[in-house]
Amino acid sequence: MDTPVHPVRSLAARYYTDPAVFEAEKQGLLSRTWQLAGHASQLEKPGDYFAFTLAGESLFCIKGHDGQIRTFYNVCQHRAHELVSGSGSTRVIVCPYHAWTYELTGGLRAGPNLKAVAGFDRSSVCLTGVSTELFVGFIFVNLDPDAAPMEDWFPNARAELEEWVPHYADLKPLEYVEIPENCNWKVSVENYSECYHCTLNHPTFATGVVKPETYDIQPQGYCLRHTTECQNLEDMTYDINSGLPHSDEYSSWFLWPMVSFQVYPGNIINTYHWRVVDVDKVVVVRGWYSIGGAEDAVVRKLAVQDRETTVEEDIHLVESVQRGLNSRGYVPGPLVVDPNCGVSSEHSILHLQRWMREAVEG
To answer: For site-directed labelling of 59, which of 106, 332, 333, 358 has its Cα 20 to 30 A away?
Structure first.
């Protein structure tokens, strides 16, 4: 007798509504995955730095005299005062509390009256570093000291993006758009990671950019790669004239858990960055980039169109889902996993929800 096949059901509502699950994610997931810190153009010359917060930790990135970008915990090794705030540039890192001074590489350089301390070894003191990688011009960090490199996490994604956006080193941020959403971050990420809903809910995207019937999403390690054929480029809302390879294509690379790179026809790159706020609140930051950060009418128009169509449409969808997850009447339904994949399949959600479960349960 054949063993009956049971469909895979979506995650229980508690994964999206329980504060304890959210706390477990903050303590574990955010501390063991590659997270976006900023863009390399924020650190143009040696000594440039910016501070940021990740998983409740204050950190800062700084560019050394050797050109290398490093990340450190923002804490003096003397008596724990924070070292920097905001952004700026400095020759050395000086603690505001007792003026202990560190090289841009993190090593202790000097401190008042240290010669009076018998047996003190200055070389034994160094700021605590954080794993840091450059990824197509973006700075990623991972608080796990034993973290595998990004290439292991997201095989081929870097090379593919460099191929789709060969001018990435010349790009700088032109505009950031922050979109608050009243939902759990995973609801928003799931919505981004399937196009089962696109034809019904995103008419501009589905008729002006992609051919929904060709849309597919496949895993590459912990990357979800979105591919599709595009509509007739003559019907696009802007001229496609980059002359670069892949200029007639659209593709997207979602890097688990909270960053995605999209490349529109014309080799126009934009980013999604999910910033968690609370169990039922997230901010989605849409980044738009141009050569040298110069004014670009096409990119500006795309940002406006995106905000007024797909983004606005998604806000209503994800917030409705969050309200539904809080309903006592919700029973997780089966995922629509088509063996042939394609736009009408939720196989990408199957992968995502496995990663979500692993992040909490191990």
So the answer is: 358
- Residue 4: pLDDT band (50, 70, 90) is low
Does residue 194 contact residue 348 with C-beta atoms inside 8 Å?
yes
Count the neighbouring beta carbons within 10 Å of the beta carbon of residue 185. Answer: 25
Count CB neighbours of 194 within 10 A.
22
Residue ranges and CATH numbers for the domains of the chain are 35-146 (2.102.10.10), 154-361 (3.90.380.10)
Structure confidence at residue 2 (pLDDT): 58
Phi first, then psi: what are they for 343, rounded to 5°? -70, -25
Q: 288 forms bridges with which residues in the sheet?
A: 175, 270
Quote the pTM value. Answer: 0.93
For the chain, what is the mean pLDDT?
A: 92
Three-state secondary-structure class, residue 73: strand
**Coil, strand or helix: which one is 110?**
strand
Helical segments of the chain, H only? 14-17, 19-27, 150-153, 157-164, 185-192, 198-201, 203-208, 297-306, 312-325, 347-361
